Amino acid sequence: MKICCIGAGYVGGPTMAMIAKQCPDIPVHVVDLNQERIDAWNSDHLPIYEPGLEEVVKEARGRNLTFSTRVDDAIQEADIIFISVNTPTKTFGIGAGRAANLEFIEKCARQIAKNASGHKIVVEKSTLPVRTAEAVKRILSSECSGATFDVLSNPEFLAEGTAIDDLLNPDRVLIGGESEAAIETLCSVYARWIPRDQILTTNLWSSELSKLTANAFLAQRVSSINAMSALCEATGADIDEVARAIGSDSRIGPKFLKASIGFGGSCFQKDILNLVYLCEHFGLHQVANYWEQVVVMNDYQKRRFSEDIVKTMFNTVSDKKIGIWGFAFKKDTNDTRESAAIYVCRDLLRERARLCIHDPRVPEKQIRQELMAACTDMSGHLTEKDRWLVENNVSIAKNCYEAADDAHAIAVLTEWDEFKTIDFERVHASMHRPSFLFDGRNLLDQATMDAFGFEMHAIGKSFNRKNSPNS
Ligand code: UDX
Ligand code: UDX
Questions:
Q1: Spatial distance between the Cα atoms of 328 and 331, rounded to a whole number of angstroms
Q2: Which atom of ligand 1 is nearest to the CA of 32?
Q3: Is residue 349 within 8 Å of residue 389, measured between CB atoms?
Q4: Beta-bridge mates of residue 438
Q5: Does position 197 have pLDDT exceeding 50, yes or no?
Q6: How far apart are CA 192 and CA 279, in angstroms?
Q7: What is the pLDDT at residue 466?
Q8: Which atom of ligand 1 is nearest to the CA of 125?
Q9: 4 given a catalytic annotation
Q10: Strand stretches in 173-307, DSSP E
Q11: For residue 367, how far is its CA from the centre of ligand 1 (angstroms)?
Q12: Is 368 exposed, middle or buried (0-12, 13-18, 19+ CB in 10 A)?
């Protein structure tokens, strides 16, 4: 048996590396159009940062794991072909801003159809709208090359930052399909390291929809706790205490109850908007409105955080230096797609703040590109003022101390563990007074920071309890 995967991204790369590690006798060939990315996968500097990934790649690369841009060859040689290309939100035409852009999926299907012979199992790894497999099947059978295909849906549930552990010990693997034989072939790969009873099989449409549903439910929990964080700030309740109290109810559970500046990442917003679009397509407007509120609440939370910074700092941040700690959408990744930090920084820039940004894993070029993109409207227009602000009012710091030096405030936007062990006395000494500290991740201990002399504001914790209706 031979496996290939089209798309060497955050999903395709780690997933194939794990399959290659666990199945040393199966050749696994990962292909991508992007030569630079493939070169990085073949080097000592992998294109993505993920704890534990380097060890897994080093073990399998050169043995049964290869990375190349030879897409046609990989298709011809493989028995199982995973499609793991990106499916971003459409930015043009019908469904712009909501529907998934399936251009790359369709191109892959056409390329497979053109190059395949014999029998192939085509596996959708990318998250897709329900019934995409129908279109993939039609495209595959349209070439009349004599090749035959089975299409399976096998969505990936790994979260960035914990991808290796998620792949090693998944809660479940989901395989949807019509052909028992194809399902069994793919099951036999995962069964090398995952107990059979954790491999769930369903029909194609349930599998496709389960991935969208899982992401919608997870994002909904974050929006729910963030909604309550606003009420906590208004009433004097503490969101971490509320989360602990409700999370110990076994029906609710403790995970995904961390209040924050809002969820980011390449999946949550994209998948919910995709779900909303699907519901509208089927005339289910109330269902669409219900799910759309999860994204509306997330936008509110991001905006609320930057507005609170401005209000707290005497209603102006103009020409004030603000140290930004963290830019990735969560800790332990260098991924910044849809990171809440982008929007908080953009809003502060537009208030004319001077930002000095430090992230342990995100390079300067990527930070500037994200900020430029966030200032660009849907029609591709970037105002001269916004360009000027990103070019002149953003600097990048090598460490947290440099970001905080001579600053009026610090904003913690990603929950990197190393931020907890900073020398806060040194940081405080280098800042203006009052030394504002806005903790957008509830990472730091309030009493400790008070003792160092900071004026700390955290999410879902009321700074001024005089607002309480009982006081
Ligand atoms: C992607 C999707 O975004 C997500 O919906 C899905 O659940 C999993 O796959 P990710 O791996 O994070 O997630 O995307 P990305 O890191 O952008 O990787 C996609 C790769 O596919 C890129 O390296 C891109 O160059 C490659 N690609 C894209 C191709 O090789 N061919 C194409 O036609 C399009
Ligand atoms: C998510 C899903 O968890 C994963 O199963 C799916 O395959 C892809 O999408 P990912 O986006 O990589 O994974 O990370 P996740 O840990 O889910 O975090 C998403 C965002 O929510 C991050 O910005 C994170 O900071 C935020 N979050 C998460 C919170 O703000 N609070 C929480 O309690 C949990």
A1: 7
A2: 30
A3: yes
A4: 411, 457
A5: yes
A6: 38
A7: 39
A8: 8
A9: no
A10: 173-176, 199-202
A11: 20
A12: middle
